[in-house]
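FAQ

Q: What does a record look like?
A: Structure on top, sequence underneath. For example:
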């Protein structure tokens, strides 16, 4: 997620500071998951309401960790926003596009492409092609159009996730 976020930032001609912020945010965006039990994280079936709420709160937990670690505010905010959608249907705050930072919009796209591309205990991996189609279909509705365009261009130019699936 870190590498893809960074490359999208570069493609969009963001400042060095913004690109560095994206790299940091991409590395720590799911740190809030560390507060969850292994059983919950590896649960293969549907989550109960309380379990879902615990998972939905991980961006806020990661944000608090980033703040305590004195990381840049732009990195912390991107971490908080990485599951937000521009139509307001995301979490944890239901932000719309005009209230999201550009770093948050970039991290949201990078995270969903990575998440869909690789196996999760609760579902199969869909692969990169499927993930790219998903962001393309939802461009302008769930994901920022310019961010999606930059991401698609990167993959068309040969971007690949590293062997560990942590791009």
């Amino acid at each position: 997620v870190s590498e893809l976020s960074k490359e999208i930032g570069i493609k969009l001609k963001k400042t060095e500071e913004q690109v560095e912020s994206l790299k940091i945010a991409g590395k720590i965006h799911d740190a809030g998951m560390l507060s969850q039990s292994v059983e919950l994280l590896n649960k293969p079936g549907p989550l109960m309401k309380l379990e879902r709420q615990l998972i939905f709160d991980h961006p806020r937990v990661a944000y608090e960790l980033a703040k305590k670690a004195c990381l840049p505010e732009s990195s912390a905010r991107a971490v908080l926003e990485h599951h937000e959608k521009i139509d307001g249907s995301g979490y944890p705050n239901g932000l719309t596009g005009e209230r999201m930072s550009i770093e948050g919009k970039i991290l949201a796209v990078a995270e969903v492409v990575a998440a869909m591309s690789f196996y999760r205990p609760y579902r199969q991996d869909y692969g990169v092609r499927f993930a790219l189609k998903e962001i393309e279909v939802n461009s302008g509705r769930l994901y920022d159009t310019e961010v999606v365009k930059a991401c698609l261009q990167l993959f068309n130019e040969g971007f690949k996730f590293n062997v560990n699936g942590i791009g």
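Q: Is there anything notable about this one?
A: The chain has a mean pLDDT of 94.
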